[in-house]
Amino acid sequence: MSTQTTPADHTPHTPLEAWRALQDGNARFIAGNTLHPHQDAQRRKDLALSQKPFAVIFGCSDSRLAAEIIFDLGLGDTFVIRTAGQVIDNAVLGSLEYAIEVLGTPLIMVLGHDSCGAVTATKDSVESGELPRGFQRDLVERITPSVLEAKRAGDADLQDMVVEHTKQTAARLLDHSAAISDAVTRGDAAVIGVFYHLADGKAELVYSNDPRFQDA
After folding, report:
1. How far is it, in rounded angstroms, from Cα 204 to Cα 201?
2. Which of 26, 162, 181, 203 is 20 to 30 A away from residue 113, measured at CA?
């Protein structure tokens, strides 16, 4: 008896292979042909003692941005980190470094999306001069440079600001973390920025530190 072979049966080992696997999963999600790989009892048992995810997805906490769903993934496939507006802090950097240095994950994806509430709040604060109260202020302050840069470039649209923030966040990972930067320099890892369209489900590449990704 033949068995069905899916992309999820072959774990990617390079940054480019990881991105292509994510693209394939996203294409299945868009088409409504999801395979729901690695979601059975055997997979759960196989992962009980160790994990080897092929990508880190650092995305926004928005409820519509469930990474395992939009990329048609299963248990053990990705190491997922989420904060509102994909804002970087020390805990995020530590988690990313763990994935790169300890788990050997070859790809970091920064995942933003249209109609982002955190970027919307930042845009409103920049335009009104009023900051939100409590710890939401910290989120706004960290996103403000991206909003200001988009405005300086003439991009006043919210979606342009989200794309700019996604690009800046991806670039900052390389600036802030020697561990990530070193892995990228060695060719062991890559960092990309992806913009997710809520309406059609498409994950669009908007940033890469490696030109090979532009043609992938």
Report:
1. 10
2. 181
What does the longest C-alpha to C-alpha distance in the chain come to?
67
How do 107-113 and 203-208 pair as beta strands?
unpaired
Q: Is 165 annotated for ligand binding?
A: no
Whether 113 has a binding-site annotation, put simply, is yes
CATH code for the structural domain at 12-45+56-208: 3.40.1050.10
Token code pair at residue 194? 């992806």
Cα 8 to chain center, whole Å? 19
- What residue ranges do the domains of the chain occupy? 12-45+56-208
Q: Tell me how far apart the alpha carbons of residues 41 and 110 are, in angstroms, rounded to a whole number.
A: 30
Q: Is 138 annotated as a binding residue?
A: no
Tokens of 16: 């480019």
Cβ–Cβ under 8 Å, residues 99 and 47: no
pTM assigned to the model: 0.91
Q: Has 182 been labeled as part of a binding site?
A: no
